[in-house]
Amino acid sequence: MLLSQQKPLEEILGFLEREKNIFIFGCNGCAEASGTGGKPQVLEMKEALEKAGKKVTGFSVVDFLCQKALVQSRLRGKTKELKAADSILAMTCGVGVQAVAAVSNKITHPACNTLPLGGMRGEWQGSERCQECGDCVLDMTGGICPLTACSKFLLNGACGGTTKEGKCEVDQEMECGWRLIYERLEKLGQVEKLRQVYDPKDHSKMMPPKGLRLSERWALEQGK
Ligand code: SF4
Ligand code: SF4
Hints:
- The chain is α/β, with parallel strands linked by helices.
- It is 34% helix and 14% strand.
- The strands form two sheets. Strands 3-2-4-5 form a four-stranded parallel sheet, with helices on both faces. The protein has a two-stranded antiparallel sheet with strand order 1-6.
- The mean pLDDT is 91.
- One iron/sulfur cluster binds next to helix 8.
């Protein structure tokens, strides 16, 4: 289970500033359990976007947005609505946002932050990974996570060691994550997003939230 929390509406509207027509994806997996991406939240978001002057061309709530084959099968049934959309808003964890971005060829914005729980959990995922950093930056990186796609967790572009073949200098079996981000942004016509400079990550957001640390379940796991 990946725990997500909806980003403030102002931040989401900021992502959508230059776009009018939006398609919304929700997730019936962890996001529904987190209360961030099930059908009720998708309908609330649709209303909020419409109030803000956006047109919602359609929406879909998929069982597991982290599963690219499932997302692809839903995309097929929504071709018209997706074609009419300037971008997609994905109401789910970082893995789900990356999966939608990978298969849709559309600008995909994250509606949520994925919160750290600590430890490993069973997840059905492909090549997409999320470090649960608590402050999702996928909007700026074409839906590829720099914290998991780059061996050095760099936030502001490539380290300079990328090989001529576009592999990572740390592990040449691996594609350079920042090359992949550049290529994705280029394909989406968003290379100018690379001009934004990020402050270092706030590591306090990478700790499990205080409320969770106080829960009975947490205490049991800690043997307290
Ligand atoms: S930026 Fe990466 S690690 Fe952080 S929430 Fe998004 S996908 Fe997860
Ligand atoms: S080569 Fe690319 S993926 Fe590897 S550490 Fe440098 S920027 Fe990150």
